[in-house]
Design goal:
Elements: H1 2-9, H2 16-24, H3 27-45, E1 48-51, E2 53-58, H4 84-96, E3 101-106, H5 114-127, E4 132-136, H6 142-150, E5 155-157, H7 165-171, H8 178-190, E6 194-201, H9 208-221, E7 225-230, H10 247-260, H11 270-275, H12 279-285, E8 290-291, H13 298-301, H14 321-330, E9 334-336
Parallel strand pairs: 1-8, 1-9, 2-3, 3-4, 4-5, 5-6, 6-7
Helix pairs in contact: 2-9, 2-10, 3-10, 4-5, 5-6, 9-10
The chain binds S-adenosyl-L-homocysteine (SAH).
Length: about 350
């Protein structure tokens, strides 16, 4: 175990069998893996955990991803969209309490044209001096990403969802392809966005072999951010009866990604915290170093329902900031409100 960990820390890529072994460890070996990942993260970012304000801008979506609660064909989903003024107000509020990164996430909603998003980004960047804006608005054209980048957006999150073509096809309708996701992620990287990919752990039909492909994909793309959280079923989707992903497998994935990309910005996701009390803290202790509390207006939070029982209050929200600070401090870390760029950014 220690030899394998040292090999990866030394910069060597683990073999497929070694990745599978690391994914499967439990008990004492898991503790060793998580601790090693934590130490790697400490050596790069110290004891800081970066905070991002998450603004969920729209629950309208033209896509029909089988796992997602806001998929187009879910007639039960309550739809909402924030106005540009509301989005800017959320950011200003976050800025007033110290936030320096805002993540604008939403379904693929045709209302949010390039012109609309660019204007919102420009307004946030000019009224919140020194802040970073992250977008997470799904697949767009190369030209669209270029315009968003020119408007001042710093980062873009687009999980690849699965790097295994067969698995990808089981999670998505035919019109969504892994090829296009990869095209998008390549565009984002070339445009100079700090780029985030990622995947769900335990999504239906996922195998350890598909996770090995995810890890290989991450090694190749060299993203600045990686979002990894457990799959959680949503009652109004075709996957309603599928079991949720495992917390321990999620922690092993986080730790492996930290070992292969020491500088990566790695969130302890809301899904991890939603699945298990203290999940986020366990994520941090396995190598995560970002937390994204919810800054969306109260009345819309329950409508951005990607999966059942998604947390949006308490420590998961901006109102729980002092609690979140305590939770982070209780495990020996400090909450940082800085921009928290990837270390490659000058
Ligand atoms: N439209 C944007 C944002 C999608 S929501 C985009 O395409 O990037 C953000 C992430 O939530 C998704 O990438 C997906 O990995 C995750 N998600 C969706 N449904 C989920 C579920 N049932 N359980 C866990 N995570 C889910």
């Amino acid at each position: 175990m220690n030899k394998l960990i040292r090999k990866i820390i030394g910069g060597a890529s683990p073999t497929d069998e070694e990745v599978k072994h690391l994914l499967s460890v439990d008990g004492e070996d898991a503790a060793v893996l998580h601790q090693a990942a934590r130490e790697v993260c400490d050596s790069v970012y110290g004891k800081k955990v970066f905070i991002r304000g998450l603004i969920e801008i729209s629950s309208y979506c033209k896509n029909d991803c089988l796992y997602c609660g806001i998929r187009r064909s879910n007639r039960c989903a309550e739809r909402y969209r924030l106005t540009p003024d509301e989005i800017v107000e959320c950011a200003l509020y976050g800025y007033s309490i110290g936030f320096r990164t805002f993540v604008l996430q939403g379904g693929e909603d045709g209302y949010f044209t390039d012109a609309v998003v660019c204007r919102v980004v420009e307004r946030i960047k000019s009224s919140c001096e020194g802040c970073a804006v992250t977008l997470s608005l799904g697949e767009r054209s190369t030209d669209s990403y270029a315009q968003l980048r020119r408007s001042g957006a710093d980062r873009y999150l687009l999980r690849h969802e699965s790097a295994d073509f067969e698995h990808y096809a089981k999670l998505h309708p035919r019109e969504l392809t892994l090829e296009n996701r990869i095209r998008c992620l390549g565009d984002l990287k070339s445009l100079g966005f700090q780029t985030g990919c990622g995947f769900m752990v335990g999504s239906p039909h996922q195998t350890l072999d598909s996770i090995v492909k995810d890890i290989r994909f991450i090694e190749e793309l060299q993203p600045e951010m990686v979002g990894i959280g457990p799959f959680i079923p949503h009652r109004d989707t075709p996957f309603r009866d599928s079991p949720a992903g495992s917390v321990s497998l999620t922690l092993n994935c986080l730790a492996i990604v930290r070992l292969i990309l020491p500088k990566v910005l790695l969130p302890a996701t809301t899904a991890l915290g939603s699945l298990e009390g203290g999940g986020r803290e366990r994520g941090i202790l396995a190598g995560a170093n970002v937390v994204m509390p919810n800054l969306s207006p109260h009345d819309v939070r329950r409508k951005y329902s990607l999966y059942d029982n998604k947390l949006s209050t308490g420590v998961e929200s901006v109102e729980g900031l002092s609690e979140l600070r305590k939770a982070i401090e209780s495990i020996g870390y400090v909450m940082s409100l800085e921009r928290g760029d990837h270390l490659s950014v000058k």
